[in-house]
Records
---
Amino acid sequence: MQETVQLEIFRYRPDQESEPTFQTYEVPFREDWVVLDAINYIKEQIDGTLSYRWSCRMGVCGSCGMMVNGVPKLTCAVFLRDYHEGKIRVEPLSGFPVERDLVSVVDDFINKLKDIKAWIIREEGQEQPVEEGEYLQTPAELAQYKQYSMCINCMLCYAACPVYAQDSTFIGPAAIALGQRYNMDSRDQGRDQRQEIIASHEGIWECTFVGECTTVCPKDVDPAAAIQRAKVSSTIDWFKEVLVPWGKRK
Ligand code: FES
């Protein structure tokens, strides 16, 4: 007889139901299946009404993030065999409104990426003409920000963050880490614009350094460190602004 595993899946179809429920499905257990494979099996073989997001199935696109037994995970990167004993409970990422079933509403995060200006900014007239080629960097300059550039916008760090769970106005781990990624890029000249957001009341000072954002990151980015580094540089800004006489400023 084929071995099976049970998945307890969060269901919510707001056009049909006033409250979410959980539905249990039995799927074949295979050593090499990730949790996303089991969800795809449910969709294809058992219940085509189930809604969820995924795309690459290789930990790159960041779209398959869900709560697996209460912990934010990329469902394409965790194996059924890791949860085989008992049921596996799958829910949408916590901290975000639910669109339908396992699909979260991600507008808040997308708007925060826009607010933080997660792209290279050059001062007006400072853009390098195309014919002069690329902006070059030394390996040391690249190393300054490379770790933060590995973020795939999966939002697991938001689902793990107790501050964001209490107050969604918090800019949050990934957006601040990406702001730092560009602030530390030698080609960028947009730090002053980003600081208005990063050092605002909703920015770095909301973070209480629990560090769960870093613990759950599937790409080994360290958003908690990015936030603490931003706190240090913002404090230095403040000292320069308030304590250093104008004549001595660099
Ligand atoms: S499907 Fe792309 S990261 Fe999981």
---
Amino acid sequence: MRTRPATPDDLDPIFEIYEHEVLHGVATFDLDPFTPEERRAWFDRHGPPAHPVIVAQDGDTVVGWAALSPFSSKRAYARTAEVSVYVHKDHRGRGVGRALLGELIRLGRAGGLGVLLARIAAEQVPSLGLHLSLGFQHVGTMRRVGEKFGRVLDVELLDYQLDGERDGGSDRG
Ligand SMILES: CC(C)(COP(=O)(O)OP(=O)(O)OC[C@H]1O[C@@H](n2cnc3c(N)ncnc32)[C@H](O)[C@@H]1OP(=O)(O)O)[C@@H](O)C(=O)NCCC(=O)NCCS
């Protein structure tokens, strides 16, 4: 298994993996599958250095993907990106998520970002475990902010300080 930058040819497997969570899970708060035009627009909004999309490939098969997305369109937030990591349901528990998130952290640092954020539904135990094991820290709980499948959901906010060492761990505000 290896990770590599995604290309437009990867959009079908990327969104096949994502659509499973849209329709059946609470990993994403999207409620509707993306149209082909929306898939392409999503891809075009990303790109190195700060907003890469990567895939994990096992043989010829894309088994997972990850991305750094802009956290906000407000420009003062440009040092911050939000992480997404999705592994195909048949390929979980074999280190794919760890490889993808580790590579995202490396790329985010290389791309000059200062902070990575993760918003994770409170019941997503594997995702919380993955992020915490790679050094993300719990910031707080956004209570009752989401609703999916008729259930009101809490969301945990986690961060990863990429340039904390450079700042001596201080908050530049
Ligand atoms: C979360 C997800 C990406 C993890 O991917 P994965 O390839 O199964 O994870 P890995 O095998 O690399 O596991 C890495 C670490 O994650 C944690 N983890 C993974 N599965 C877990 C589980 N079922 N329970 C608790 N912790 C788990 C562990 O800390 C694990 O480290 P360890 O194996 O040393 O214990 C995957 O479960 C997934 O795609 N889930 C649905 C989508 C999602 O929730 N994405 C995150 C939203 S941003």
---
Amino acid sequence: MFTIRVQTPSGRYPVFLGRGLLKNTGLLLAGQLPAGPVLVVSDKNVAPLYARQCLQSLQAAGYKPYLKVLAGGEQVKTLETAAGLYTRALQAGLDRRAAIVALGGGVVGDLAGFVAATYLRGVPYVQVPTTLLAMVDSSVGGKVAVNHPLGKNLIGSFYQPTLVVSDVAALKTLPAREFNAGLAELVKYALIWDRKFFIDLENLQQKNIPAGNSLLHAAQPRLLKYIRRAIRIKGEIVSRDERENDLRRILNFGHTFAHALEAATDYAYYLHGEAVACGMLLAVRLAELLRVLERNAARRIRTLLRRLLKFPPPPPALKPQAVAKALFYDKKKEGAALVFILPQAAGRVLVCKAPPFNIVQQVIDEYLY
Ligand SMILES: NC(=O)c1ccc[n+]([C@@H]2O[C@H](COP(=O)([O-])OP(=O)(O)OC[C@H]3O[C@@H](n4cnc5c(N)ncnc54)[C@H](O)[C@@H]3O)[C@@H](O)[C@H]2O)c1
């Protein structure tokens, strides 16, 4: 088991990462919190696979666990579902000594974290991520939120977990498409922060991965090492800038285009990680056209992305104007200026404000035609 420590101004917490950790959730929690009632929040896909192990281990460690299983999917990340969870917690008599455990992907993690941040003005919570995306991204850093009819993640807070328990054994049951989406976020860390990580991934695919095979199957033992590296990078970035005033913005590499693609397709075509994968390719192209990134480096990054990730084909009916329009609704905009995180080299990015829009438009056109 690896322990990665995250230290932000509002809290310090361990991320435990390993294989087969779920059955030790209770023990790991006992190192941080006294025994008491615990509300475990999960979804209908994850609960049948992993809730029993988690509940049993909590019970064995002296906690009194209650389970709430949600339908799952982005549509449950709402204030209405949160209200249902408050009710369940009140009915179970959860007081300030209680904790909430989020057992599932980023949807469950964001929602249960939001409930923990607001129930009785805040109770501790534990992230037990079961998707690759949640392990390398959403479980670390304390962004908790629900969606609003007018946009995703608009109601939320920064609220750090008490601990994170990442059991990579859970990834075995993750559908391949979801795994690929998480892999996009994992590769992102190499591109924004760690040239050596990038080179390792390059070498890995050259040495071990026949074209078309995924990192998971071809090199499973290495996956743990890469997840650890990704969590360390995320931990370091959020430790330096918990509330996304500056440095943390680089985690949005690929996300300006990704959010526009998702919004322009009503969130029904791409998984988030797939949109990020496409968004990273578009950001590389934009950086190349703006001469921020050398042509050779751009080619290398594109090659890595194309060989590690699967890209859905561009949506056939999507019009460039729809993507351009969606770009201007972006949360990351500063005034009227669009903000892009662009690669300068493998492992290094910069923040680019208001690039000439005809070049942004060219990138979108090239992608769609
Ligand atoms: N808080 C943050 O910093 C942050 C960062 C990135 C994304 N997010 C949020 O994360 C959410 C997306 O998270 P996600 O990609 O994990 O999606 P998700 O939670 O919807 O999980 C994806 C699917 O996989 C299923 N699943 C989960 N684990 C499984 C397992 N081990 N075996 C089988 N099936 C499993 C789920 O039931 C679901 O159907 C979005 O709401 C996004 O806004 C938050």
